[in-house]
Design goal:
Pfam families: CusF_Ec. By secondary structure, the protein is α+β, with helices and mostly antiparallel strands. 23% of the residues lie in helices and 36% in strands.
Length: 112
């Protein structure tokens, strides 16, 4: 039983040392080296289209150039014409950029 307690104590100490170091590594990561300047197309599925407001709800995968995990969210279209032929359920590839904190879709293509 003493051996188990010793193993648990050593493990707890090791975790106490390792966890702060991993947090430090994340906090000091140089994000300037990430390729934020070249956005890429992201896979998604249209959930809702509001042509009048120029908005589209998309369930999307990971948006790599923004390091954004997959989720469902509402985006504003740069041009309402991008939304003209969209219907809920359409599988798409889309380009999104951050314009002053607002997520703006600049291109939408049907997924192949």
């Amino acid at each position: 039983m003493n051996t188990v307690k010793q193993i648990l104590a050593v493990t707890a100490l090791a975790m106490g040392i390792a966890l702060p170091m991993s947090s430090f590594a994340q906090a000091t990561m140089d994000h300037s080296k990430m390729d934020m300047a070249s956005p890429s197309m992201t896979d998604g599925e249209v959930k809702k289209v509001d042509l009048e407001a120029g908005k589209v709800t998309i369930k999307h995968g990971h948006i790599m150039h923004m390091d954004m995990p997959g989720m469902t969210m509402v985006f504003t279209a740069k041009d309402k014409a991008l939304l003209a032929n969209l219907k809920p359920g359409n599988k798409i590839r889309f380009m999104v950029v951050n314009e002053g904190g607002k997520m703006v879709v600049t291109d939408i293509q049907p997924a192949n």
